[in-house]
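Quick one: structure tokens for this chain, please?
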Amino acid sequence: MAPAQSERPRRPYHHGDLRHTILTAALDVITADGPTGLSLRDLARRAGVSHAAPAHHFRDRTGLLTAIAAEGFGLLAAALSEAADLKDAGVRYVRFAREHPAHFQVMFAPELLRADDLELTTARALATDALRTSVSTVRAEDFGIDTRLAGVAAWALAHGFATLLLGHNLDGAVGGKDPEEVFRSLATTLFRSV
């Protein structure tokens, strides 16, 4: 006689890498609908797990968005650390935004994140250090302002260009040209001595 339904041994839960699956699905949702379209329940449904399963990895929506931002800052730090100079760092920044638009969107929305998260603060610090390293190769007299403000100017240029590009606000200005080359030309014009 077969055991009753309640007497059957339960198989252990196994999904493979649920954390990665949820992060990937979340990035797809953010790319399509922005971070406001994100729901842990919907992500659980997409992954074929119970609605509570994502909470084991992220606690809540804020935890998930914080994990996405931390991952993004880590990827950005890696990209910037390979820059040859300040202009190259700017090009890499723009490239990162184009290749990781969902990360980029979440990384700079502090109201969506857990600001004191160790993974986030560590990854953000690595990205900041990589940018500072690029700026440190420039002399203050090349800008006419101290290097800290030069770093702010360079970051503002790259971040502003990337944000406008992702929002399709530069479609007419960039046309069919490679946005990275357009940025490089712009940076060369504005920072001739760098």
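The chain has two domains: 16-58, 61-190.
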